[in-house]
Amino acid sequence: MVGWSLWIAIFLAIVVLLLYRAFRPHRRAQVVEWAAGHGLPATGLDWDEASRYLDRSRCLRTVGFVIPLFLGGTTSIVWALVYAQPSPPFPFDLLGSPSWLVGYLLGAVLAEVTWTRPRTQKAAALVPRRVADYIGRPALVLIRVVGLATIAVGVIGHWFLAGHLRAGFGFGPVPAVTAAVVLVLMEASLWFIVHRRQPVGSESQMRLDDALRSTTIHRMAGAGLGMMFLFLGYELFSIGGGIEGQALRIILPWAGVACVFVGVPLSWQRVGHPRVWPVRRHTSGEAASPMDTVDRTAT
Fold it and tell me: Which of 241, 91, 233, 230 is nearest to 168 (CA)?
């Protein structure tokens, strides 16, 4: 019982620390560092608007992360202590680590959707906007490649290799289906954020607006990519542990471990929280695909 008491205390401490971080406002030095990393000038910047957006966005993202974390941890503890079961039944078993990242993503979307920008008669009309301008094409391609790989491996593992895996290593279609849904929703959310109306203002105001959008897009992309790596790692580990063939039983599990313990942290750090990322607006003469661009006058 002492072990459970210690585990519950650690769990509650983590939740409290996360909530403290969620509601703690950014210090001025942090906002200045964020602005410098996004290439914003130190003069003429609306520091209050930047601070409010960053505080609100971090709060909603973290709360979205904490809610499934707290509910999932609580139900697991209750089922273990009361019913002596290692895990709760459906639908409570869905409140695992992927659901934490889903909550984080929803919090980021909510922060952007509910952020009220100044209303003007027309929107800024400069050059088309692309999702790649705000996050970088390599990161965008990586998200799509890992997402499609997760779907493909899930389909192969569930429908084509199910009869060749040892008992206990098979898995259902949930990882592949969830990855497909997350990939589509994330693509739509990134497209929506980039397409949101940008009111007419000074150059510094529009650069600030671009930097705020870029921050939200990076946070969402990092969480989404991390979720894809979690699913892909689980699939590779399951297939590698149950398939025939000595080489595959060595390579695939280690590939799955690398996805979880290397891919997820790097996604969070390098894609989700880059220290330096100025929005790289392309010139009007460059070609842009219809899915990635929008003329600012159209919204």
Answer: 241
The answer for residues whose C-beta is within 8 angstroms of residue 108's C-beta and 6 or more apart is: 57, 60, 61, 64, 216, 219, 220, 223
Going by C-alpha positions, the residue among 266, 279, 284 that lies closest to residue 136 is 279
Provide the residue ranges of all domains of the chain, joining segments of one domain with +: 1-116, 120-299
pLDDT score recorded for residue 120: 54
* Under 8 Å between Cβ of 181 and 106: no
Tokens representing 116? 């009220």
- This prediction has a pTM of 0.81
DSSP state letters, 103-116: HHHHHHHHHHHTPP
Q: Which alpha helices (H) appear in 24-96, and where do they start and end? A: 28-37, 47-82
Listing DSSP states for 26-37 in one string gives PPHHHHHHHHHH
The confidence score (pLDDT) of residue 163 equals: 59
Mean local confidence (pLDDT), 168-194: 83
Compute the distance between CA of residue 281 and CA of residue 299 in angstroms, rounded to an integer. 18
22-35 in b/e form (b: 16+ CB < 10 A) is beeebeeeebbebb
Cis peptide preceding 91, ω within 30 of 0:
yes
Q: Residue 107: exposed, middle, or buried by beta-carbon count in 10 A (0-12, 13-18, 19+)?
A: buried
What CA–CA distances, in Å, run from 272 to 46, 221, 254, 255, 264?
A: 24, 6, 25, 22, 10
Q: What is the mean pLDDT of residues 36-58?
A: 87
Tell me how far apart the alpha carbons of residues 269 and 255 are, in angstroms, rounded to a whole number. Answer: 20
Which of 48, 93, 53 lies closest to 73, judged by CA?
93
Q: To which residue do tokens 């390599």 refer?
A: 138
- Binned at pLDDT 50, 70 and 90, residue 160 comes out as low
Cβ(296)–Cβ(133) below 8 Å? no
Query: What is the distance, to the nearest Å, from the Cα of residue 34 to the centroid of all Cα atoms in its chain?
Result: 19
